[in-house]
Amino acid sequence: MSEQDRALDNLMAWQQDFDKPVAWMSPDGKVSTTEGKLFYIPLYTAPRELSDEEIHEVINRTAWIGTEEEIRFKIAKAILEKASEK
Question: Which of 84, 83, 61 is closest to 71 using CA atoms?
């Protein structure tokens, strides 16, 4: 195996580790380091990029009920959840 092939293998292995969730969140915002029945929303070290269209979809689907701060929190949480799906 060439040095270039080994480097590519190492890069692929590193990418697979990077794509794994570092924690799991429940719908009510609690966090756990292990996946389970209540903790099924994966959290990553860096959110995945979303297109403007995807962000607008999330905003349009979010319930606009509550105080301004609550609505902002709901939108931010929904965008992060959408990014973690990718």
Answer: 61
